[in-house]
Amino acid sequence: MMKRDDYIKKLKAQFDLWNVEAAKWEAKAKMVQAEMKVEYEKQFETFQRQRDEALKKMQQLQSASGDAWVELTHGADDAWAKMREAFEKARFHFHKSDE
């Protein structure tokens, strides 16, 4: 198992990458046609909900100690997997319109 600080550092780095990409999507969503805007907003809202849940889990990990930390990593891994899935769905929708 990864050390606590290394694990949190890895999560933060991924989170930062997702935030950079999300900022690009948000800017792009503001410029799209009305019919596409609804779909963009839907995808972005899903992404934001999952991002908020992942952030919450990461914050819990930072403050957890001992056995609680080990148990929370399982929940964080699940939240991160859902976040990754939401990210990939949003990326697909946002990049599909570039074609």
The main sheet comes to: none
Low-confidence stretches: none
User: How many discrete domains?
Assistant: 1
Distance between the termini: 42 Å
Beta-strand share of residues: under 5%
Helix content: over 70%
Describe the global form. elongated
What is the number of E strands?
0
Taking Cα atoms only, what radius of gyration do you get, to the nearest Å?
16 Å
Q: Assembly state here?
A: single chain
The arrangement of helices and strands along the chain is HHH
Mean pLDDT: 79
What's the total helix number? 3
Structural class: mainly alpha
Structural commentary:
The chain is an all-alpha fold. It has one domain. The chain has three helices and no strands. The longest helix is centred in the C-terminal third of the chain and has 31 residues.
List keywords for this structure.
elongated
Summarize it.
With 99 residues, the protein is mainly α. It is built from three helices and no strands. It has one domain (4-24, 34-96).
Write the layout of secondary structure elements.
Elements (H helix, E strand, L loop, with lengths): L3 H28 L2 H30 L2 H31 L3
Helix pairs in contact: 1-2, 1-3, 2-3
